[in-house]
Design a protein that fits this description.
This protein has about 70 residues and is of the alpha+beta class. About 20% of the residues lie in helices and about 20% in strands. It is built from one helix and two strands, in the order ββα. The protein has a two-stranded antiparallel sheet.
């Protein structure tokens, strides 16, 4: 599993900026929604380049023979 990182920057006027790294697609919203609701009102949300990537789908074929 890739490393996921949440970064926070608190400005002098109390504004909290949150950055999510290592999450492919828009699942970062699910990852941060409880934290954001505890912090207060979200004034703005911007997607990073990772949000527009598609997750890799891994599949494996197994062949079986029955006698």
């Amino acid at each position: 599993m890739p490393q996921r990182t949440l970064r926070f920057r608190i400005t002098q006027d109390g504004l909290v900026e949150e950055t999510v790294e290592g999450v492919i697609g828009t699942s970062c919203h699910q990852l941060t929604e409880r934290l954001e609701s505890a912090l207060g009102t979200v004034k703005r949300s911007e997607l990073t380049a990772e949000a527009y990537l598609r997750p890799e789908v891994q599949s494996q074929s197994i062949s079986a023979e029955f006698h």
